[in-house]
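If you are new to this repository, start here. Below is one unmodified record pulled from the training split, so you can see the exact layout before writing a loader.
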Amino acid sequence: MIQFGDSVVLECTVYGDSSIGIDWTFDGSSYTSSVEDSSYDSAMYCLKSNVTLSSVDDIDDGNYTCAHSQDSSLDFDFTVDVYSKCKFHLDTIFKKWSSLSQAYKIVLFFRCFHG
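And here is the target side for that same chain:
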């Protein structure tokens, strides 16, 4: 479980000759913001690339994909789900109120503060 404020490293290794590449996506869109430089290991015939998420927040929730440039069947998916007390409480409240909100058209607004 990843907690609010934690740091996370997503490690990806793909195998092939030196012409292979790695492309990262976040929720289906190109992602380059915290990707470390890829390094090719000629002895192991592999390319390594990491994404480092420092001090994670709710905006880091999502699906990260390490895509092999030549063979999409070799892609790796990482799901990052940041746990916070606020998120837990909202999920619990939503489950309790969801049937009432449908029956009575209740709209709830919440604002989270982390600390």
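Two things worth knowing about this chain: The chain has a mean pLDDT of 77. The two ends are 18 Å apart (CA to CA).
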